[in-house]
Amino acid sequence: MSYHVFGIGNALVDMEYEVAESFLTDNNIEKGLMTLIDETQQQQLSTGLESAYGVKKRTGGGSAANTIVAISQLGGKAFYACKVADDEGGDFYMNDLHKAGVTTRLDRASYQGITGKCMVMVTPDAERTMNSFLGITSDFSVDELHLDELKKAEYIYSEGYLVTSDVSRNAVVQARKVAAENGIKTAITFSDPSMVTYFKDGITEIIGDGVDILFSNEEEATTYTSKDTIEDAIVELKKLTGTLVLTLGDKGAKVITDNGQISIAPVKTTAVDTNGAGDMFAGAFLYGVTHGFELQKAGDLASEAASIIVSRFGTRLEADEIAHLTAKYC
Questions:
Q1: What is the pLDDT of residues 145-170, one digit of tens each?
Q2: How many secondary structure helices (H) and strands (E) does the chain include?
């Protein structure tokens, strides 16, 4: 086993901005969700954001990428399969992942096009709203999977955002097939309420006959299952997975298995920016699971790691934060 987790997902350069509520209203942007936009819309939005606010943070992001980086930062071995263009954004993205200790094959491929970008807008209530131009990552396909690397992993992890593209969704399905044939466990995240709202059939397709670990928040759970209560949603989602990890915001989380439910306490903090919190929770939890942690301990680590991320801007752990978490849990 060369990798604890092999991740697949969109490659997006995250551009993070602090914005006023009025900016979302004035630009008809749906708050709290990820919305896909085209290149022209991205350029117009970027110009407006740069003029009014300026960039707060720039990182190599995407939901699954953030999770894979978290695993690597905590000391795990991780590979990320994605697609970037032969442009400045692509070079930045590759170098940013490599700096975080993530293995890729991005240095062996050169594609003409535009690397994807995500405009992350954070309002004063700490909620993140994302407008994403996928660029070349919308063409992420089986050709970029690097199945030889996948076969060396303990887990494969994929993000729900990949269902927005037929070719990318097919790549997830094919990767899952290879994982099953080689005894590799599967973890999936719904990623965003918009995915289970507008792409439910695609989500169902990539879940297939079930996964080992499914990550969801409350809104995603009730929306996907069309249930009015989280209790009823849990019953339905548990049919799809061996372990359901349900994040509950400032109420902590629950880990549901065939043996019952484990409550994960929240770590009290003042939220400044919720962008990447769920990704960090998934990354820290997967790190724990692949390093022999009991589920309670893996959840506690994930809860504290996520609390750190929401307490300030940015989706990456700093050196002192990594040292604190590893000393306490590892």
A1: 999 999 999 999 999 999 999 999 99
A2: 13, 13
